[in-house]
Amino acid sequence: MVTCIHYFSASGHSKAVAEYLADKLQSDSIEIPHKGKPADVAIVVFPVYCQNIPPIVQSHLPKIDAQRFILVATYGRMSFGNVLAEAAQLIKGNVIAAAYVP
Q1: Interatomic CA distance for residues 21 and 28, integer angstroms
Q2: 24-78: per-residue pLDDT in tens?
Q3: Alpha-carbon distance 46 to 41, whole Å?
Q4: SS3 helix, strand, coil % of the chain, rounded to 5?
Q5: Burial of 50 (0-12, 13-18, 19+ CB in 10 A)
Q6: How many whole angstroms from its chain centre is CA 20?
Q7: What is the pLDDT of residue 76?
Q8: Which helix (H) or strand (E) holds 40?
Q9: Partners of 94 in the beta sheet?
Q10: In the beta sheet, which residues pair with residue 46?
Q11: What is the pLDDT of residue 81?
């Protein structure tokens, strides 16, 4: 099974989460907006911006070529809104797991 980790991180927090996952899963991590290769599972790590998905992530999600997705939204302990549900509507595969990480 091929797993690929896509991440966007302006401050470095989401990148740290993505790199941790990549290390534990022995997988590649790809900074958004780079396309990456087709994968069985795509893990997407991104920050929450004022209860919204960052525009660069919104435009990138439909382009990820994967059958299953794991969505990880990092946030600054304020409010995460409904970004995981909104992100799930943008992808072309099935969400098999999702988490908010403060």
Answers
A1: 9
A2: 999 999 999 998 889 999 999 999 998 999 999 999 999 999 999 999 999 987 7
A3: 16
A4: 30, 35, 35
A5: exposed
A6: 13
A7: 86
A8: strand 39-47
A9: 68
A10: 73
A11: 86
